[in-house]
Amino acid sequence: MREDSFRPPLDADEAELAAEVFRMLADPTRVRLLWALVGREMSVNELIAHVGKPGPTVSQHLAKLRLAHLVQTRKVGTSVYYRLANDHVEQLVTDAVHNAEHLSSDTPAHHRPRLLRSSEA
What we know:
Blueprint (H helix, E strand, L loop, with lengths): L11 H13 L3 H9 L5 E2 H8 L3 H13 L3 E6 L2 E6 L2 H18 L9 H7 L1
Antiparallel strand pairs: 1-3, 2-3
């Protein structure tokens, strides 16, 4: 084993917090919401339309994601805009989705040429 790859044992509190992040990712609607927010900010109404779920359902999921510190909000007038909390959340969601693509396809979408991906939408 390489010396620079050694990691000290994970503190119990940190392990619990990490497990909470995975619990939040254990729901397909929450994953879809987080995926929609990769690289951009969206209003609640945009997210409702994007995931095709009822408003109260989306709002409940967004509240859980906010409590877990995976998303942040910005209010403008009566509209609330959501964005991913940080780059680590973006990387985690992107890696999870890309891993799922590998499990479900011989040629995952993220390995296809960009032009082909945009024409499939």
